[in-house]
UniProtKB/TrEMBL annotation:
Keyword field contains Endoplasmic reticulum: yes
GO cellular component terms given for this protein: endoplasmic reticulum membrane
Needed cofactors: heme
Keywords, sorted A to Z: Endoplasmic reticulum, Heme, Iron, Membrane, Metal-binding, Microsome, Monooxygenase, Oxidoreductase, Transmembrane, Transmembrane helix
Source organism superkingdom: Eukaryota
Family: Belongs to the cytochrome P450 family.
Transmembrane segments: 12-29
Protein localization: Endoplasmic reticulum membrane; Microsome membrane
Binding residues annotated for heme, in chain numbering: 465
Source organism of this protein record: Tribolium castaneum
Recorded name of the encoding gene: CYP6BQ9
Lineage: Eukaryota, Metazoa, Ecdysozoa, Arthropoda, Hexapoda
Keyword Lipid metabolism applies: no
Protein name as annotated: Cytochrome P450 6BQ9
Length: 521
């Protein structure tokens, strides 16, 4: 049987050719999207759009966006449009546009546009992914969990984990062995966040193959399949992915975390356990519908806010995102800080002096108040987050048609936006000599002289990182513990000049950061 000609082979060739031409026409039409809208664009290619270098692991996600931002900036554009595959993304170049998107006109750009399918993939129902009213409600419920009072309450749990960190560093110093610092700090922050988010002693500092560490690694180390999943989530309409019952979370990871959370919840509810951690506050939300300053996870006086109760799946998704947000971001931040301090010994000495001076006023004990007094430490961490923002871009989606300020261009509902954080942080207009590690970029005068929305490691506006205080606190504790007790130098196992690993979503050092450690008296 033939369809078009009298020859089956010719028919097949005709069908395939028509299909290919259709795809090419579709891509060409899509790739003219920004031109049709009057937004400057670059030279996207069929299939990959402007994203070829990232897809082929030639550069990291942040570097890919930086390359595109730099092109727009060099042509004097205030904004631009790019393509991830066929999907258009809007990029603000002028920080004032960033301010509109993240703060002034937040009601138009409320969502991250991440994939959610709470039914098939329950861990995607977390605060980072939630949208619209669901996000707002959850954000309001979780905000009291991260006040400075709650940070103070959790400080001791956090400080307890420094013991294991010191044991490892002592051993390395004694044996003159190089420290794979990113790995060690990954175990340190896993122990902290496992303890405060799950109430579980993970013991990954003692045992590098502890389960929490193993699954934590699985989440952040992205293989080919994970890159494809990211590409699908970025380029395919989510309604279609939901229709396919697409699952973003790795099933093994989901089974492990859901199991661990369910066990902890059961244990605490059955034994009425009180512990000063996030899990306690999440359990209050689950059983009482509010976060309270007391030891109770249930309320016997019938004083329950029924409408504000969260389900066990919602609790699990939030504990999961605290874990995810909490360990890798801070451990990479401290690793990069130590890399820079090993390369800049004068800054290392200056910071050590501040740590010793402050601690001498606090009985030589790490405490929340002592950490708050370390202002040079703040500058060093801010500068680290400038050069190496763990999230090199921040995604947003336009949820209500929007006219770009001072233009007649309309972004329609559903348009994706990427705030190019790394690119802004390394723009010489805001940070002269951006490759230089200089904590004085964060002196009072320099901060005042810079336009707003040019330092965005935690994002900004109503959707700013909810765990910022906690992230800063654990980074400071890690850095203070190491610098107080050890002098560090770069070991020659560290690649020099160091490169960002293109295979990781988070800004991490390719090949790791290796340090020589000398114990101080
Ligand atoms: C150095 C440490 C950290 C960095 C650099 C960081 C960075 C970020 C960024 C860039 C965002 C997106 C903000 C936006 O859209 O404007 C974010 C959101 C978020 N972060 Fe962090 N984070 C850190 C630590 C933490 C910690 C310790 C936790 C939890 C314990 C956490 C939990 C979250 C959550 C739940 C969100 C979603 C907030 C929302 O959508 O309302 N992060 N973080």
């Amino acid at each position: 049987m033939t369809l078009i000609t009298n020859n089956l082979t010719l028919d097949l060739v005709a069908i395939i050719a028509t299909f290919l031409v259709g795809i090419i026409v579709y891509f060409k039409w899509q790739l003219s999207y920004w031109d049709r809208l009057g937004v400057p664009s670059l030279n996207p290619t069929l299939v990959f759009g402007d994203f070829k270098n990232y897809i082929f692991a030639k550069c990291s996600l942040g570097e890919q966006f930086k390359e595109l931002y730099d092109q727009f900036k060099s042509k004097g554009y205030k904004h631009g449009g790019i393509f991830v595959g066929p999907k258009p993304f809007y990029i603000p170049v002028d920080p004032d546009l960033g301010k509109h998107i993240m703060q002034k006109d937040f009601q138009h750009f409320m969502n991250h546009g991440f994939y959610i399918n709470e039914e098939v993939d329950p861990l995607t129902g977390n605060l980072f992914s939630l949208e619209d009213a669901k996000w707002r409600n959850m954000r309001v419920k979780l905000t009291p969990t991260f006040t400075s009072g709650k940070m103070k309450m959790m400080f001791q749990t956090l400080a307890d984990c420094t013991r294991g960190l010191k044991e490892i560093m002592d051993n390395l110093a004694l044996n003159h062995a190089p420290a794979d610092i990113k790995e060690i700090l990954g175990r340190f922050t896993t122990d902290i966040i496992g303890s405060v988010a799950f109430g579980i002693e993970c013991n990954s500092l003692k045992n590098p193959d502890a389960e929490f560490r193993k699954y934590g690694r699985k989440i952040v180390e992205t293989g080919f399949i994970d890159r494809i999943k990211v590409f699908l989530v970025l380029s395919i309409p989510h309604a279609l992915l939901r229709f396919w019952r697409f699952k973003f979370t790795n099933t093994e990871v989901e089974t492990f975390f859901m199991g661990a959370i369910q066990d902890t919840v059961n244990y605490r509810e059955k034994n009425n356990v009180y512990r000063k951690d996030f899990m306690h506050l999440l359990l209050q939300l689950k059983n009482r519908g509010l976060v309270a300053d007391d030891q109770k996870i249930t309320d016997d006086k019938g004083n329950i806010k029924e409408n504000d109760l969260i389900t066990i799946n919602e609790l699990a998704a939030q504990a999961f995102v605290f874990f995810l947000g909490g360990f890798e971001t801070s451990s990479t931040t401290v690793s990069w800080a130590l890399y820079e301090l090993a390369t800049n010994q004068d800054i290392q000495e200056k910071l050590r002096k501040e740590i010793n001076d402050v601690l001498s006023r606090h009985n030589n004990k790490l405490s929340y108040d002592a950490m708050m007094e370390m202002t040079y430490m703040d500058k060093v961490i801010n500068e680290t987050l400038r050069k190496y923002p763990p999230l090199p871009i921040i995604p947003r989606v336009c949820n209500k048609d929007y006219t770009i300020p001072n233009t007649s261009t309309k972004l329609s509902r559903g348009t994706s936006v990427a705030i190019p954080v790394l690119a802004i942080h390394t723009d010489p207009e805001y940070y002269p000599n951006p490759e230089k590690f200089d904590p004085e970029h964060f002196s009072e005068e320099n901060v005042k002289a810079r336009p707003g929305f040019t330092w965005l490691p935690f994002g900004d506006g109503p959707r700013i990182c909810i765990g910022m205080r906690f992230g800063m606190m654990q980074s400071k504790v890690g850095l203070a513990t190491i610098l107080k007790n050890y002098k560090i130098k770069l070991n020659n196992k560290t690649e020099f000049p160091i490169k960002v690993d293109p295979k990781n979503f988070i800004t991490t050092a390719k090949g790791g950061v290796w340090l020589d450690v000398e114990k101080l008296d």
